[in-house]
């Protein structure tokens, strides 16, 4: 078996915490290059921009883009134009239109494009989907509350236009609910709290309804100190389901039914290898579309300045 020669673009927090270990543990991939303006890795070819890598004699089959969303489209387009398969970190782009452009470009060139949603690989998510498929949803509550100072120190891009603010983590919740809920759902009302010195929301409250009329309430907070919440509760006609720890634990009527080791990024690379082998792509924009809807429809409230 010839490994897929992979280049990783953007050597920041997620690349170091998750991508490098997942790649190292998967024999179907060989890390052949790092593209980073500031950082390199012992024993791996290093380039300060993607153009230089693509012009070099380093042979690359696929590229994993681990940058913030704002520069993602230009990088992905460049890689696809050079005939490389592309993995996109979440969110897959800064706008829906640019992701659609990438989808079409990949299809036209018979290349694999993978819009990753790592939280969908959390242990409880697929069992939750199967359990809910046989029940009627009555109500959903999403609580996604974390301390931005702990989880995103120094990440100024999160606060810039296109950085999504509190939706950077909350899109993970949306990636889970778009996967597990049996019916589509639609935003009816939202409030975004935007610090007066920033471009992106620090808190949000969203009210959706699913196609059967069930209310879905999402409370998102980037200022949560103390215990952090990455929880989704679903009331149904046949009991109450709860996903906690970002989907890692599944509870039914208060009983823990599923938990397991963190396999989210190994799962993503497994899927990437399969997609490449099958000549397929996976580009589901549903979570990003709900974020776009929130930015389209919500009221805006000016919040106190955010000082790191
Ligand atoms: P980060 O720590 O700020 O790293 C991003 C890296 O991208 C930087 O190290 C930078 O590397 C590179 N980069 C290229 N163009 C950039 C630009 N215009 N502005 C800023 N950086 C640029 O961010 P991260 O937490 O790894 O997040 C990256 C992506 O992964 C985001 O889309 C995020 O939503 C997603 N993600 C993050 C987490 C997490 O827990 N942090 C979890 C899952 C997914 P160089 O300066 O070396 O070029």
Automatic annotation (TrEMBL):
Keywords assigned by UniProt, alphabetized: Oxidoreductase
Organismal lineage: Bacteria, Pseudomonadati, Pseudomonadota, Alphaproteobacteria, Caulobacterales
Molecular function per GO: galactose 1-dehydrogenase activity; nucleotide binding
Domain Gfo/Idh/MocA-like oxidoreductase N-terminal, chain residue ranges per copy: 4-114
E.C. code: 1.1.1.48
Top-level taxon in the UniProt lineage: Bacteria
Oxidoreductase found in the keyword field: yes
Record protein name field: Galactose 1-dehydrogenase
Signal peptide: none
Acyltransferase is among the record's keywords: no
Record SUPFAM superfamilies: NAD(P)-binding Rossmann-fold domains
């Amino acid at each position: 078996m010839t490994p897929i020669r992979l280049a990783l673009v953007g050597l920041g927090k997620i690349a170091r915490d998750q991508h490098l270990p997942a790649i190292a543990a998967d024999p179907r991939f060989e890390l052949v290059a790092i593209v980073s303006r500031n950082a390199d890795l012992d024993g791996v070819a290093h380039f300060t921009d993607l153009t230089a890598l693509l012009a070099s004699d380093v042979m690359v089959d696929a590229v994993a883009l681990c940058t913030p969303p704002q520069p993602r489209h230009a990088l992905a387009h460049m890689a696809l134009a050079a005939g490389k398969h592309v993995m996109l970190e979440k969110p897959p782009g800064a706008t829906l239109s640019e992701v659609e452009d990438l989808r079409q470009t990949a299809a036209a060139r018979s290349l694999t494009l993978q819009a990753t949603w790592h939280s969908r690989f959390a242990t409880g998510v697929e069992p939750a989907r199967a359990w809910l498929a046989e029940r009627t949803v009555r109500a959903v509550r999403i609580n996604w509350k974390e301390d931005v100072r702990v989880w995103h120190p120094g990440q100024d891009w999160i606060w810039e236009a296109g950085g999504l603010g509190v939706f950077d983590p909350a899109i993970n919740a949306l990636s889970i609910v778009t996967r597990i809920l049996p019916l589509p759902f639609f935003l009816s009302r939202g409030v975004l709290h935007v610090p007066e010195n920033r471009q992106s929301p620090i808190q949000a409250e969203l009210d959706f309804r699913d196609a059967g009329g069930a209310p879905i309430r999402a409370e998102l907070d980037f200022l949560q100190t103390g215990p952090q919440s990455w929880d989704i509760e679903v009331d149904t006609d046949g009991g109450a389901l709860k996903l906690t720890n970002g989907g890692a634990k599944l509870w039914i009527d208060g009983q823990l039914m599923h938990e397991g080791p963190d396999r989210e990024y190994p799962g993503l690379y497994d899927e990437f290898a399969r997609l490449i082998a099958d000549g397929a792509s996976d580009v589901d924009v549903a979570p990003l579309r709900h974020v776009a809807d929130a930015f389209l429809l919500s009221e805006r409230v000016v919040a106190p300045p955010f000082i790191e």
